[in-house]
Structures are given as C-alpha cells and as structure tokens.
Amino acid sequence: MSPELARPQAVAVIGTGVIGRSWIRVFARAGLETRIWDAEPAQIEAAWAWLKADLKRSRREHGLRKRVIREEREHVTRCETLEQALEGVFWVQESGPENLDAKRALYADLDRLAPPKAVLASSTSTLDMTKITEGLAGASRCVIAHPVNPPHVVPVVEVLGGAHTDPLVVRKSVRFMERVGQVPVLLRKYVPGFLLNRMQAALVREALHLVKEGVTTPEGVDAVVRDGLGLRWALLGPFGVANTNADGGLREYFTRYGPSYEMLSKDLTSEFCLTPELIESMGKSVDAANRRLPRDLQRSWRDDMVVRIRELKTLHPAVEPEEDA
Amino acid sequence: MSPELARPQAVAVIGTGVIGRSWIRVFARAGLETRIWDAEPAQIEAAWAWLKADLKRSRREHGLRKRVIREEREHVTRCETLEQALEGVFWVQESGPENLDAKRALYADLDRLAPPKAVLASSTSTLDMTKITEGLAGASRCVIAHPVNPPHVVPVVEVLGGAHTDPLVVRKSVRFMERVGQVPVLLRKYVPGFLLNRMQAALVREALHLVKEGVTTPEGVDAVVRDGLGLRWALLGPFGVANTNADGGLREYFTRYGPSYEMLSKDLTSEFCLTPELIESMGKSVDAANRRLPRDLQRSWRDDMVVRIRELKTLHPAVEPEEDA
Fold first, then answer.
1. Are residues B9 and B130 located together in one domain of the fold?
2. What is the ipTM of this complex?
C-alpha cells in the first residue's frame, strides 16, 4: 500500500510563523492529520504553545467544546525533520520566508521529499510561482494559496498557478480550500499584490493622501470605513453593494454613476505620499483613538469579532425566506 | 415664548426620497418631533408608507417593541407646506435633488422660513456648500451632513462647512449627529466625493481594472472584499487594521510595508476603464452569483445584517475585559 493510500488525510504545514501556525488550525479542525515543521525548532514549539492558547481562547470566546478542542489538538504532530513531516501527505502548505532564493531552495527540497502526487502550495503574498519553480522537476504541482492573516479566522485564499502549473492542480487546490472551509478565489494570472493587496493599496493610498492634505484625521478615515463602507462590503463586496444601490441593479448603478466615478477618478491621488513624519503623526493619532485597549487585545478582539460576524452570516444566510406553511 | 423655546425638540426633513425617508427614522427614534415635507406631495405619502413598512420590518427582524414603534411613528408629522414643516425647528435636514440651481433656490426658501437659529444641513454627496450658499444671508448656518444610504442603518455622516459656515455650527452639527446615534466624521475642507466616495472610487477603479484584464471575475473581487478585507475593515478601518498587523503597531507596519505599498502603488491602474460591454458582462456575473435572492431582498438582507453587526459591536465593545473579582 502506498503511503498516499495509507494516510489519505495527512497534510504538512512547513514554516510555523504567524501565518503557518494559523494554517495548522484550518487543517486540524477539518479533521486532517497535520504535520508541522519549521527550519527553526523553537518556532515549532512556539506554534504549539500558540495553538494550545488559541484553542483555549476559542473555548472561552466561541464556546468550542472540550472534546472538539482535544480532537483538533490530537490531529497535530510536531515533526523533527522535513522528511517526517512530508511522509505520505497529499497537501503541503508552505509559509516560509518571503525571499525568492530561500523559496527556490525550499521548493527543491519539498519537491524531492514529498510524495509525487502531493500539491505544494505556497502562502506567498508577493512572489510569482513561475519564478519559484524555474527549472524545478515538479513545477506542475506547485501553486499559490495566499491567505489573509490569520487564515483560521479570515477565510479568503487567493489561488493561482505559475506558468508551469497543471491546471488540474489549480482546480484541485480550489476544491481543497473549499473542503477545509476557506473561501478560495481564483486568479487567472499573476499580478503584483494579487487582488487583495492591490485593492487595499488603492484605498490606503487615497486615505493617506486625505490625511496628509489635512482633509481629515486617521480616525476620520477609520470611522468612514468601519462605520460606513466596511459594513456593507463585509456582506456583499463592492459589486454586490453596487447591485443593491439601484433598483435596476449593477447595470443601472454603473450606467448612472459611471460618469461621477470617472470624474472622481481623475481627482484621486496618484502619488504614494507616506513619509516618516506622516507615519509618526498617524501613530500618535491611532494610539490616542485606541487608548482603551492594549494592541494585543485589539488584535484578539478583531479576530473574535470576525468569527462572530461569520457566525451571523451562517445564522442568517442570504436566501429567500421560506413561506409560512 | 418663542417657537424655539416652545418646541426645542423639533426637526424638519425636507425632501423625502430614499435618503430623506431614512433620516425620518434617525430623528424620530431619537425622540425628536420630526416634520416631513417634499415639493411633491406624493413623495410624502410614499415616505409615510415606507416608514410604516420599515417599522414593521424592524419589529420582525430586530425585535423592536410595539410601544417603541408606536412612539417613533407618533413623532412624525406630515406637513402640507414648507412653512408648516419649518415652524420652530432647530435642525433642517435637506435631501433634495442633487442640482446646484435647485439647491440654491431651496436654500433661499429655507433661510427665509426657518427660525434664525436653526441649522440648515444638506445631505448632498457632491456639491460644495460654499457654492450653494453664495450670496445667501444665512450662509453661516448652512452645513453639509452627508449620510450613507440608508442613514438609519449605516451610521457614518460626513460633516463639513462651506467657506461662510460658522465653525460653531459645524461643531454643533457634529454633536447633534452624535446625539441622534450617528457617527459624524469632520472634514476640514471640501474635496470632490468627500472621504467615503473617494476611497470607494479608488478601490472600485482597481477592481474594475482587475476584472477587465481578466485577472478575476466580479464574484472574485466581491469574495476578496466580503470574506477578506471587509471583515477587518468593518471592525477597525484601514489604519486600525494596520495597527493590529504588526507587533509594533501602525508605525512598524508602515515602516516595514511602506516600500511594498509604494511599489504596488506604481502598478495600480490610473485609468477608469468602465465600458458598456464591461457593465453588461459584470451585470450577468452578479446576477448569476445572486440568483438565490431577488434584488429587493438582497437589499433588505444587507440592511438587516448591518444592524446585526452593529448590535454585535455594542454587545462586545473593544474595551479591556474587567478582572474577575
């Protein structure tokens, strides 16, 4: 019996920093045997300690049951060697350093040691899989699966292949991400920053400009997004919102407001105006706005609340209500 | 006794289209006597019918009590004349047509008929108060209070004066918006699109570009925002998120990622690439993604869910947990 058949449910998390450790939870809670390894043994222990603490947190904040927590923890195996981590896995989630040479060296090892049918998926947010796999024998099984931090809380994963990736591997990756409860989004080609970081950069560039020009404060920007744009976007996305903002839907919306968008578009900044002085003044402003809560608690509050918003969506899906019988 | 002293709690909603009718709920539920008037009498009756239906909806979806609904409805008075609507009010919320000449004519009437101390606030999303009030005797009491649609659901209000607005009126307007439960954001000067529509245009422009270039689909864009960016933004805004995305906070975040943002910034589109063909292909895509729900139900689902997210935030505020006694 081949190792793949013997352990059809094993995955490897390679690199257990902030992103990698969160992937552990995604896979383990989906019932997969999850092997974890990092080039730095101390990182593995740090991830293990984080995992135990985060599971406790899930129990406290979201009522996760003791048995579920125990099962999730029991699905995780700390490995001493890369070989041990990769044995018999069908999926490798790599979250190593964001450096092309380091990635190329790592993918040579992964390709040599992982079972031939295993998919090698990278969490990279910046690199092009075509470049990572240049000259690699197993280039066809390499794919990017770029998560949002932290993936066990925020579900979107950007999925794209390189020039040598087998299209079947890309489709398999999309299905696998759905299977473990993420929301995969397929990119048909590489663009710097993929989708998420490009759209974020577009909004942040304009926001920095508005602060620098003295139109508003950093807290003003945050309030407009937090208590305005973001509330609707978190439910429908920008095109879904456009579709609900005119009786005739998206077509009417963009036909009617297209000219205003175009005019506004010409007035938006094209400069990226970040300076050390602006960073410092924004730092002061954000500190003042958040003085009620230390930063680590801001982060855990954010993640707890994202989970709660997702629970709300599950509880109240956007489907037609059933008629009363 | 002057009318102001006799009725210190009366406001007028002038123009009762989609935005105006939603303002009625903001003021009436805050306990204010709310006079409503529209140049088109049929619009007043339409707003009244909407109000009754929306109150029922609030009862069904959010458990609003019967007594509270009755009180809110009793706070609203339909007026036959502008004079009647303005008598003794201290706040006028104008939501008339977005046309400079029409606004100038309307403000001449409002300024002539409203009590001298009443603030005249416009819901305009595009016009400059300096231009609306050119030559107007009461220019100093005119201010913009631009809401998000619908204001009784989405709380942000952009507040800004014109060149002739008394700074005290601007401050009073910010306080009044807080009093009625909105989230006012002060703009120190006029820029086209204010804050919200500029940031939205920046993101949407890039999103349209990514769809047109075939990098992804409209549903791909929506998923990235809905299940990624938007979830965090709805809680903290973009700078608040930056502050939680590095252990050293916003300063460390922008110092570390500033160069990546700058590089990405150069790669973002500067073209507004909307064409009728793109609109049609996006329309088809959005229709397919939303086939489970008719558009009017998409909109009411969106609004119900925004209310629920706001309730979540009230239930779980971002404050340090109290120590166990």
1. yes
2. 0.95
